[in-house]
Task: inverse folding
């Protein structure tokens, strides 16, 4: 935990943005606005209100107060020495977004967008959710600020994620199961856009990630950059140097953009995004959009996406519902194309190995989404060796994933007496003990879309 | 010369609005959908919007979603769409492609324009492409002498009405209701107001109204103030409910009377 004086109100949104996007929301060839004309007025209104709000001391003071008193910021840094023994003995620092109220980084963004909703005089918010984390965070902020809240969620996910549906309903939100298309997160986003275009006079769309039409990618980045702004200061304070690499999982990519942004100007710091490789990128059953996709247009912006020759979106696959999205935020596509960030795929099996290892060596149960970043750290740590310093964003906690993990590891009812500090490969479940499809059925999200 | 403007102008000379029918290619399969599209022309449609199936039709309501979902799953693509374009041209109506942007971008804007022109298509309507993002399409459509139809909405500012209509060729699509496609009990006065505002911005451009019209009497209501009446979900419903080409032809006949009343 940093011991420096608390940031002054406004410091967290005001640091200079990178030189992108441009005034119309383009990150090079990516981003922009590919939406029906009917939504342009609402997007313009949102852009204008947001640009005014982000330099308004009253808003910034309120946002800062909520971050401290409600979310519990700043989140601490934890060094994981026992885990690092399995990662080439590189030193690994975790940024603990899992300790935020509601259990992930999602709250950072929704508090900002909920304040913005009130500022533009709207009384209702809508949100999409893959398996629950952004939906729960939005329902939380809506309850706090007295806004009516509707969350769209794929029908399959509402059944599998009954617990998060119950959480949202307890918080006063209406949860609408989406039965169109592939009944997944991408269809929940389509349905939320349909609601928005119909009810735009009263309703604001609280988008969960750094994707979608301008201004969402830039605005969500600004609200999430607190992660990296804090972490950079904390690492400098603690180590007297910057990390060699910063790692984060990437679905839509908001936790990754959140921790990357402060380090973008630091040329010596590698930025590494870990995408969900599912069964392996070469199997076609994955969600590694940059690694295995092509540029195109989806959900209001140009970016990499998984698509077929007809330009139809291909369904993604991942054990992590929060990374199970066939698109990615346009800024990631841009950072990839200019070579400032690198993107790698982590398979379900590799992520679950890292998941178990963190549980056993550090007493921290990570979200399966975040476990993809940990799996990346195991590889990068071995590449860079013991002198390396890695910063990993632990974007969410894994309480929600207990059932998925229990099924994956075949824990069932029996006593687990394995005494090892970490899991050796022969302690891993054998292939066929459970299919990935079954494991997916129990998964939940920490970094949706 | 804009073929859409020409056809809508012909209707105007007859003292009526043009009837513009929408049907997607590929529901229930490609051949049956092309037969239905042809029947729409036989029943009296002046222009047919040929829908390109897309996996994420964010502007469409449940009726159109259900039909295009079947087509997407069957792998229907631009080649099938071009076949439908040829069929409409052969049947004597003006074919215009209606597509979300990604299927065109994936096919290639230049290649799409070349092939569309060769198939006898007049141009394309792009519901999720605003002129601000349309540089490739503006260039390719210009080069191949194709019409391009963008949308305006009740929420459009006067400045946007001006810039959007300036980028259109053929007609401008007035999406009369804030919402997705689907039939509605009443057309509402938002449509008339939007048409009037749009005319003010572009006095020489035809304004056609879509979203909500499902029968002859609604068509007559819209025809009183618009240059063209666009009907989509009602046609698709004929297909979903199994009435096929006969149902489509009968609907066209009803609507064709409406635009002439």
Result:
């Amino acid at each position: 935990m940093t011991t420096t004086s608390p940031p002054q109100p406004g410091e967290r949104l005001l640091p200079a943005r990178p030189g992108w996007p441009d005034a119309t929301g383009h990150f090079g060839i990516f981003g922009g606005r590919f939406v029906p004309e009917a939504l342009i007025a609402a997007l313009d209104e949102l852009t204008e209100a947001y640009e005014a709000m982000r330099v308004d001391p009253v808003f910034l003071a309120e946002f800062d107060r909520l971050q401290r008193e409600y979310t519990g910021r700043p989140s601490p840094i934890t060094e994981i020495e026992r885990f690092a023994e399995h990662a080439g003995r590189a030193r690994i620092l975790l940024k603990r977004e899992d300790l935020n109220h509601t259990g992930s980084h999602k709250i950072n963004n929704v508090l900002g967008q909920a304040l913005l909703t009130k500022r533009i005089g709207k009384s209702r918010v809508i949100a999409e959710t893959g398996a629950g984390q952004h939906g729960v965070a939005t329902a939380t902020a809506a309850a706090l600020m007295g806004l009516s809240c509707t969350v769209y969620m794929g029908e399959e996910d509402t059944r599998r994620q009954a617990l998060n549906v119950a959480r949202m309903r307890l918080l006063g939100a209406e949860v609408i199961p989406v039965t169109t298309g592939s009944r997944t997160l991408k269809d929940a986003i389509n349905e939320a856009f349909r609601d928005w275009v119909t009810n735009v006079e009263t309703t604001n769309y609280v988008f969960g990630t750094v994707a979608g039409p301008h201004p969402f990618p830039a605005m969500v980045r600004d609200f999430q950059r607190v992660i990296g702004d804090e972490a950079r200061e904390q690492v400098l304070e603690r180590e007297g140097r910057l990390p060699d690499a910063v790692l984060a999982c990437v679905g839509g990519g908001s936790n990754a953009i959140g921790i990357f942004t402060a380090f973008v100007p630091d040329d010596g710091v590698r930025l590494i995004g870990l995408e969900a490789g599912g069964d392996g990128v070469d199997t076609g059953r994955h969600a590694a959009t940059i690694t295995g996709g092509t540029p195109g247009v989806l959900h209001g912006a140009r970016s990499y996406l998984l698509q077929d020759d007809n330009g139809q979106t291909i369904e993604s696959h991942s054990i992590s519902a929060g990374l199970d999205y066939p698109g990615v935020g346009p800024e990631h596509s841009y950072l990839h194309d200019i070579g400032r960030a690198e993107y790698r795929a982590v398979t379900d099996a590799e992520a679950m190995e890292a998941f178990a290892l963190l549980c056993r060596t550090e007493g921290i149960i990570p979200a399966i989404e975040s476990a993809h970043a940990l799996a990346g750290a195991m590889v990068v740590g071995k590449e860079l060796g013991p002198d390396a310093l890695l910063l990993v964003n632990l974007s969410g906690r894994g309480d929600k994933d207990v059932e998925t993990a229990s099924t994956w590891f075949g824990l069932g009812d029996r006593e687990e007496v394995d005494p090892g500090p970490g899991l050796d490969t022969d302690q891993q479940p054998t292939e066929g003990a459970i299919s990935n499809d079954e494991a997916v059925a129990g998964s939940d999200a920490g970094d949706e879309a | 010369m804009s073929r859409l403007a020409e056809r809508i102008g012909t209707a105007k000379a007859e003292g009526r609005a043009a009837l513009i029918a929408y049907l997607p290619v590929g529901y229930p399969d490609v051949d049956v959908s092309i037969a239905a599209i042809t029947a729409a022309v036989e029943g009296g449609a002046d222009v047919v919007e040929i829908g390109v199936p897309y996996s994420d039709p964010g502007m469409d309501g449940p009726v159109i979603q259900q039909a295009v979902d079947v087509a997407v799953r069957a792998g229907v693509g631009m080649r099938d769409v071009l076949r439908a374009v040829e069929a409409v041209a052969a049947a004597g109506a003006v074919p215009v492609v209606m597509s979300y942007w990604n299927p065109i971008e994936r096919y290639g804007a230049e290649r799409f324009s070349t092939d569309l022109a060769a198939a006898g298509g007049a141009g394309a309507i792009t519901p999720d492409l605003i002129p601000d993002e349309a540089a490739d399409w503006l260039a390719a459509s210009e080069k191949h002498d194709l019409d391009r139809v963008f949308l305006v909405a009740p929420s459009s500012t006067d400045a946007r009405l001006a810039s959007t209509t300036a980028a259109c060729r053929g007609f401008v699509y007035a999406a009369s209701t804030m919402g997705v496609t689907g039939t509605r009990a009443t057309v509402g006065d938002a449509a008339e107001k939007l048409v009037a505002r749009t005319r003010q911005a572009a006095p020489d451009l035809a304004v056609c109204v879509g979203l909500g019209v499902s029968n002859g009497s609604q068509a007559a209501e819209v025809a009183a103030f618009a240059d063209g009446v666009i009907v989509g979900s009602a046609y698709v419903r004929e297909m979903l409910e199994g009435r096929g080409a006969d149902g489509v032809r009968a609907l066209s006949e009803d609507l064709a009377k409406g635009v002439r009343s």
